[in-house]
Amino acid sequence: LIKLSVTLGNSKSTNKDNEEKLLPPLPPRLIVNLEATNSAKFSIYGVAEPNVEVELLKDDLSLGKEMVDEKGSFSFPEITLDKGVNTFTAVALKEKEGRSELSKAVTVVYDDLAPKLEMLNPVEDKLSVDYSDFNIIGKSDVGVSVMVNGKLAVVDDEGGFKLKIQLNSGKNNIEIVVRDPAGNETKKTIEITYDI
């Protein structure tokens, strides 16, 4: 009788071990192709386990759910962005397995303001000079790129820039284009006449 109860006890524990443990799905991965945009609408893509549901969160508020296709892809088209920094995360949901952990957060900055452009040299829009080497000097926002007639100017940590150009004799149209990471631009054209 003792042997029989020990045998029955062992068979019960092996049945529990054979039951399949349901693991929650893996966290989805959000893919954002840019860090900043000047558009209020934005699409977010990602990858996750096939045939799970993904819930997108912006600052911990749900923006909706989308099914992941057989290839493991999902998208949330036309998400409305708030001005400034928008932080997104996502979770994968499966009926029996439950929720995944939160995905790694991604941020997108919505900025529709054109960068400032302050010219320090020249200050005027039209001028005449008697020398061919000319320094274009100005100030803008931190983190912008500055092109002077198609040439990239170095921008310092405070938004200042300087580029030496060669003037041709006669009229020279100098175009300065300042672009921020969101794609906003400020342009200015200066006419410099070089009289030999």
Throw out a few tags for this protein.
single chain; 196 residues; mainly beta; 52% strand; disordered N terminus
Descriptive report:
The chain is mainly beta. The chain has one helix and 17 strands. It has one helix at 2-18; strands at 29-31, 36-37, 41-47, 53-58, 61-67, 73-80, 84-94, 98-99, 106-110, 118-121, 126-129, 133-139, 145-148, 151-155, 160-166, 170-179, 185-194. It has an eight-stranded mixed beta sheet, with no helix packed on it. Strands 2, 4, 5, 7, 8 and 9 form a six-stranded mixed beta sheet that branches. It has a three-stranded antiparallel beta sheet with strand order 1-3-6, with no helix packed on it. Strand 7 (84-94) and strand 8 form a beta hairpin. The longest helix is centred in the N-terminal third of the chain and has 17 residues, at 2-18. The radius of gyration is 30 Å and the shape is rod-shaped. The N and C termini lie far apart (118 Å). 18% of the residues are buried. Residues 1-19 have low confidence and may be disordered.
Number of strands: 17
What is the number of helical segments per DSSP (H or I, 4+ residues)? 1
N-to-C span: 118 Å
Major sheet characteristics: 8 strands, mixed
What proportion of the residues is helical, as a percent range?
Answer: under 10%
CA radius of gyration: 30 Å
**SSE run:** HEEEEEEEEEEEEEEEEE
Q: How would you state the average pLDDT, rounded?
A: 89
Sequence of strands across the biggest β-sheet: 10-12-15-14-13-16-17-11
Assembly context of the chains: single chain
What amount of the residues lies in strands? over 45%
Structural class label: mainly beta
- Can you tell me the overall shape? rod-shaped
Stretches where pLDDT is under 50 for at least 5 consecutive residues are 1-19
